[in-house]
Amino acid sequence: MTALVTGGGTGIGRAISEALARLGHPVAVVYSRSADDAGDTVAAIRDAGGRAEAFRADVTDDDSVRAMAAEVRDALGPVTVLVNNAGGTEHIALDDLESATDEIFERLFRLNTLSAWHCARAVADDLKTADDGCVVNVGSASVASGRGSSVPYVVSKAALSGLTRALANGLAPVRVNEVWPGLVITRWWAGKEEQGRQLASNAIVGRETTVEDVAAAVVGLVTSKAITGQTITIDGGQTL
Q1: Cys-Cys link to 112, which of 148, 156, 185, 233 (CB 3.0-4.6 A)?
Q2: What is the mean pLDDT of the chain?
Q3: Is 153 part of the annotated catalytic residue set?
């Protein structure tokens, strides 16, 4: 019943890791560079009575992911819940076409799309033998609007949506879904928090969307056994 959360030590990933631990899952908190943050998340889960360990992996590299998956399996047991949360962006104005280079497209595709493919493939056998194997991909509401931090970011997250539906078929009966957070104030907004909050105020529910809101949606998809191949937007109505 192990839950593996990539990018699990910070922001949305930390909130998801802690929420899944409260459900009773041992949690593999996977990180690339944020070792201290991952350690803090593990400590918080343990302090609350849960079980967690941190694992380092470059999720853009298939060999690294397969090695990490084997370490998780040995330490915590087979993976029954996979949350592909790792991702990144480049802040490039949408009309600045020349700055959106092939290198940036390729890097963000590997980080935002291929990483989820690597992880799902690495734990596919675990998921298929589980009573209710489940994958949740963390995408972006920018896919619906076409407006985001950059064109390569929007495109890579759109590809993740296609991967979600393809894997829902390819991994069945494993359930594969995705969440689309809107604007959530995380470390991506460091130094620009007020700008982010002003933009977030456009939500029709009248408040910001929080990391806990996203985590609650992930928990819903993990526990709702009849949902697969679906997208849930968590943005307080920003994209309506």
Answers
A1: 156
A2: 93
A3: yes
